[in-house]
Amino acid sequence: MSMTLERRPDEKQTALIEERIGERPVFSAYEVGRATIIRETLQAQTGYSFTLPREDQSPVEIFELYQEFPELDFLPVRDGSGWITGYLTRQTFLASLSESQFSRDLLFRKEARLNNLINRDIVCLNAHTNLSEASEILMRRPDRMRFDPFVVTLDRHFFGISTVDRVIRGINYFLTREMEAVRDAQVRILEAPCIPPEIEHELRHHAHVQPFQGPGGDFAKVYEIDDRFAVATLFDVCGKGVKAAAMVSVLGTLLHTMWKELQKHPSFSLRTLENELYRLNNELVKLSSLEMYATGVVCLIDKQNYVLSVFDYGHGMIWLRRNNRVHALRNPGSDPSMPFIGITENLRLNPFSFRIKPGDLLLTCSDGIVEQANHNREMYGPVRVMEAFQIASADSLSEMNRQILDDWTEFRGGARIRDDLSLLLLQID
């Protein structure tokens, strides 16, 4: 494989190019230029000016260079027209001299030239080449040279040297920044308060969402409608990472829009929420990938009449703590084959309702809590959630959630976390 430069520009153009290179142009996070050891840095590291040798130079001159500059290793070579046509490395060059005395004598002959020694499988990439494109090109090189450095150019001029390692690090840096941006957007959606200014009696709650790594696929939030009604939501999107986080962002945006619409209804009721969830699901199907969906629950809390109504979109787990006893709330008519939210249009769920009392505590969580395994491959399970919920005692809901998570962590015993996790705790006043 050989990727060469265009012909060297004239002296005036060269001066302008060198001036631009000296200004150290800014590259985006996904361009090779950002992952390059520039010429000035190479000179500082090796002591060599990095005037590129020509093919017609004697091997003796290169031997003297390597002797004079012990830190010098990768050395591009150009032809008489200024094209970079190959490269040398310290190891391969010195190895060719040490094969035998005969080989050494051949290389040091007066008429010997570099053109017979250089590796012509040189890769020269423009500094504005995308890192992903660069990695594909570099990985297509033969095994024997796959991880050799490569040349980076700017405006057809030698800019510096880079390596596969630096490209991979650049890709990782770029992906990390991308993940952070998605995560920041997700945090803003989760933390944005959804409380009308005229509300006097808020539903006390605490949500804990912990992504597996970077942005995640769990969502937990409470939406206050008025002094009578509040809507509590917890969803677990299938998969992990950016793809799941993207659906969380869509879902969170749709829920926020739904909250705005619910406040406009002059006579809000359970039927109103049912209709809005029907429309939300249809929009989610249109805006998300075909294979993406979410499980979870949407709970309507009637704070005046003390009624809890639950829309179960699969894997819905809700526990009620009353008088220090914990009960699992289940839908008596639940259908295990009921589609999850976001996977099929025209999905209309029938909610199931329970009477609640002042002082009740309600807990729901995602699969990341229940299905976490320890080193013995035992799952934490719903029974252990109930036990931890029952014994948790604290002055604040956040402290109660922390105690449940402490029990979960102790059970895990250092076993790897394998999923996003979320907890939503509600207190009825």
TrEMBL record:
<protein>
    <submittedName>
        <fullName>SpoIIE family protein phosphatase</fullName>
    </submittedName>
</protein>
<dbReference type="InterPro" id="IPR036457">
    <property type="entry name" value="PPM-type-like_dom_sf"/>
</dbReference>
<dbReference type="Pfam" id="PF07228">
    <property type="entry name" value="SpoIIE"/>
</dbReference>
<dbReference type="InterPro" id="IPR001932">
    <property type="entry name" value="PPM-type_phosphatase-like_dom"/>
</dbReference>
<dbReference type="InterPro" id="IPR052016">
    <property type="entry name" value="Bact_Sigma-Reg"/>
</dbReference>
<dbReference type="InterPro" id="IPR046342">
    <property type="entry name" value="CBS_dom_sf"/>
</dbReference>
<dbReference type="GO" id="GO:0016791">
    <property type="term" value="F:phosphatase activity"/>
</dbReference>
<keyword id="KW-0378">Hydrolase</keyword>
<feature type="domain" description="PPM-type phosphatase">
    <location>
        <begin position="203"/>
        <end position="428"/>
    </location>
</feature>
